[in-house]
Amino acid sequence: MRYLERDSFQNVAAMLVGRYMPRSAAKRLEISEVFRELYSAWFVLAPISNRAQGYWRPWWSPGVVMSWLRTEVNRFQRMCLGRLSFDWATAQVAPGAPASRIEDAAFIAHMEALLDHALGDTLRAGFARYVLGGLVWREKADAALARARAEQAGFMWNEQELWFLAQKPFLADGVVWADLREAPADMLSWSVWVADGKLHAQLSQPVVQRLKDSVKAVLATDALPEHKLRRINAAAKTFHHWARYAFDAQQQAQELEAWVWRRVNRHIVQNTPPLAACYFNLRQAPRDTQLHFGRASYLLDRGVTDEAWLNIWNPRR
To answer: Are residues 1 and 102 in the same domain?
Structure first.
């Protein structure tokens, strides 16, 4: 446990809280102390989870998952998607500790205590799952990896669920299967399906609706035009964070861009024309359909810039 109390860990944890939660840190709110504890734990757990095979690491972009899907479907013709969702209400640290080669009883008890923060839809809960997922579900993930090898299936997982891609379904406790040739399936923020033997992907309808609802909610407030546009841009960038890697999302983005711009122009730009230059245009945003393979050494890679390294620790995946 002493390593959690190192000055270096505590100082960097405090710096990251100040970077990503500046208001809470400045006011010294209780939530900032929780995040400092979570960051200290993450400094220990990140390199450990980095050894987990098939794990979608927090510092890998969505492009890594999309590349995995494309490779499994297009190259290996594995078109049946199996998924097992993790139940955080019953999560425990103890089963995953041996699989992660952690024997420090005090550290394990401290991680168990942090599990109290992992339930709910708040930023704190999401961040706690983000930090602890690679440890909590390691035993299940290792067992699933062994099964995937036996069945010659593709395998990947994160803190919320694990995925198989196989040529045909196989029996496994809790795994729900969908044939992507028969109907689309929602996965992360995408809707994916197979046509003519090739993977197709666009943003799922809940994600599209979330962007529209965000724009409507912002425009209904009495905030300053600059603040409204900043929040709308943030919602559009969140959409683009996933859309840029999906082949079939371009048409979606163009249609949404027209929808968003009509409302931004009517309610913001017509009254404050200079703000047009600050608008994030989904139609013009870059796309990235190259294959991406995650860099396993990212944490200690000298080729990673300081800014990119700091972005690893963003509490929002």
So the answer is: yes
Same domain, 123 and 245: no
Question: What gap in Å lies between CA 4 and CA 130, rounded to an integer?
Answer: 18
At 296 the pLDDT is 62
Domain end call among 202, 227, 252: 202
Could you report the average pLDDT of every consecutive run of 10 residues in the chain (317 residues)? Answer: 79 91 87 93 91 89 96 97 97 95 92 94 93 96 97 97 98 96 97 97 97 97 96 96 94 94 96 96 93 74 80 83
Domain co-membership, 229 together with 244? yes
CA contacts within 13 A on the Cβ side of 141: 28
Can you name the residues that pair with 186 across neighbouring β-strands?
191
Tell me which of 173, 202, 231 is where a domain ends: 202
**Cβ within 8 Å of residue 225, ≥6 positions away:** 268, 271, 272, 275
Q: Which residues contact 193 (CB under 8 A, 6 or more apart)?
A: 180, 181, 183, 184, 185, 199, 200, 201
* pTM listed for this prediction: 0.92
Distance CA 136, CA 115 (A): 9
Rounded distance, CA 86 to CA 163, Å? Answer: 11
Nearest to 80 by CA among 161, 190, 171: 171
CA distance 143 to 135: 14
Do residues 131 and 27 both lie within one domain? yes
Q: What is the pLDDT of residue 1?
A: 63
The answer on 189 and 62 residing in a single domain is: yes
Range of the domain at 81: 54-86+137-202
Q: Three-state SS for 32?
A: helix
DSSP per-residue codes, 195-213: ETTEEEEEE-HHHHHHHHH
- Max intra-chain CA distance, the chain: 63
Q: How far apart are CA 317 and CA 301, in angstroms?
A: 21
